[in-house]
Fold:
Amino acid sequence: MVEVTLWGSLGALAGGKSKVEIEAKDIRELFRKLAEQYPGLEPLIEKGIAVAIDGTIYRDTWSKELPEGAEIFLLPRLAGG
Amino acid sequence: MNFDPRYSGRNFTSVGTRPIRPDGVDKVTGRARYGADFNMAGQLVGRVLRSPHAHATIRKIDTSKAEKLPGVKAVITAADLPDLTDGDAAMYDILDNCMARKKALYDGHAVAAVAAVDARTARQALKLIEVDYEVLPHVTDVDEAMKHSAPVLNDTIFTEGVEEKPARPSNVTTRTQYGHGDIHKGFGQADYVVERSFKTEQTHQGYIEPHACVANVSSDGTADLWVCTQGHFVYRQHCAQLLGMEASKLRVTSSEIGGGFGGKTHVWAEPVALALSRKAGRPVKLVMTRDEVFRASGPTSATSIDVRIGASKDGTITAAEATLRYSCGPYAGMWAEIGAMTAFACYRLENVKTVGYEVLVNRPKTAAYRAPSAPMAAFAVESTVDELAKEIGIDPVEFRIRNAAQEGTRSSYGPVYGPIGIGPTLEAAKNHPHMKAPLGKNQGRGMACGFWFNFGGQTCTDLNIGMDGSVSLAVGTVDVGGSRASLSLVAAEELGIAYEQVKAVVADTSSLGYNDMTDGSRGTFSSSMATISAARNAIKILRERAAQTWDIPVEDVVWEKGHAIAKGEKYGNLAALSLREIAAASGKTGGPIAGHSELVADGAGVSFATHICDIEVDPETGATRVLRYTVVQDAGKAVHPTYVEGQYQGGAAQGIGWALNEEYIYGKDGRLQNPGFLDYRIPVCSDLPMIDTQILEIPNPNHPYGVRGVGETSIVPPLAAIANAVSNAAGVRMTHIPMSPPRILAAIEAERGG
Structure:
């Protein structure tokens, strides 16, 4: 079980929650279960969400494992120049 | 992905040296081919008709007279680019920006295009196109656009991110919020509070090479596109989607690039050129003029930002708050959101809140510009931080060191930081000789910090070993700053061969797997990871071939310094086999030797910098002179230090231009008044001092060599560092960028008058 923190506008799509607990071993499973439990999040997940695991931001490595007790933070996928 | 990206702490032979860049000779002798240097037999000239109005409904476009002009081979409007975006709002905006559909939304918005046998005929044809406009009220200022009385650009947009859906449409597309703690409590604990409002004007990336492409659509439906871009694979995806093509049937080749800085991450002219070629049945070359580049491509956001910071007597920040309003052009973006995320990222804050508002205005569609949105936020925050330090009576560097984020700090955008480099850059700045150098009359010194995220992304690389032992490296990230040299160094390092033995090229979209574009400071970070992976795959084959030659198990063969070596005393008589020897025999040991890699490079690691700047202000005219400038930034590991220094210097130079001179100036009619380098003045060599650099190397734990991206962070601190220097020199706080001579003079006179 990992605790996931959602950024502001994402939280609004998850019933106003800023934190949710999910049983997930990696980012892929996390996204799948988030979409199942909060269908409003699915379009945003499809569009792209970044996941910060203990401060390191992952944008595309959906196979990245979520270590027990790690800080998991969802962030918008940003543009660079 | 069977590749371990973790930092290994190895010693380097090639990486960290400074060889000559492989593309250098062609560039200085004029042989290098940029976007406009490519030609095809039977090629037509493309030209675009642009709206002279900031905001207008397009009632009718009559192209019949233009079509009848001899020499005109195709005329297109939005009708020739039907909406195939299938509900993808972001792609629809790109389509509408390439060619206006119902409304012209800014001065310079494309409304039609022609392809003709020569430029003269094409220009004549544009004059024959009749567009019936209904001119609408417009708004170009970000604060004005937020008012209830402002003309609304898009009446289907209702502000998102607010608790209750608004009753009426608005130019504010989204409100976002970041932060933690309780700012009311934090401000209650403050002994000192400084609150200021700031504005920054819109700037262009100012790349020297205009957008240029040659498109050729064949009658069998396949197509080629030669183009100046930061990401040819992304251009292929976007163009294919907009034109209804299969991506594999569109081959995109990237030219050399004369600057991009984020401005060449979006398609503008390319779908238009392809649509013209498809209709004309001939190749079409489309090159934007400088006027078009300014009016219709780029630019960054104009901003309006309020900042409030409180601190206790001992110099600890107790609360920080910012409201950031960023212009997006006429289409929704997330520019203020990035500003809200980055604004306070340098600091360790118990109580912080940032709110961003994305605002539509009748200006060109905002595009990324080198660490997009961060420089403006840093300007506002770092200016306020400097003033607060003065109020408390603490040295501004000490104040920042006391409040700097560190490992374990909760960042203002949410996550807790791992190992980060803000502290070391501040300490290095504090101890730099620049900080202690004397200043003369009317001179001031300023410093500031900056933060940027850095990204990785999808990356694919091929490494092919020729029969003579030379190595071809095919990468898919466009070389915007010397990455072919850096990646050749990485291949040489991994294979244990000389740098000169490696030749790196940027492969076209039909020759290599998909690559994300070169943005987010990812080029060297990502492609070096893929190059290391590809080289290791090639080494595996080299070892197998040596084992086969010696007829021994491959497990007994190791790779050292460019040679296969049979390990163990029983193989004492076997002389090491060099890469050249194994390559020469490859035809008889199993065929060509190559290594490939397809991976997602993630874990780029956040980046920090601290800049120091000395400025002299002429109090009679408001004119400024940059006397000295120093950049301190963490590179993780500088693969080619000269090009890392070049990135630091380039970011500083662009920041100096942004801070002191550059701005989009609109008339009351909503038309851009200064779309050219005479009136939009970017810095030239004579405006700049030698920009000194100090590279810190704090290894990134998520890259085998410790590499971090370096391209963007260097543009984040300059606006603030220069504003602090000018404010110290002039004796008055400057709150409006650019600090052009009239603005400085007005501030000095207002201060004198007050």
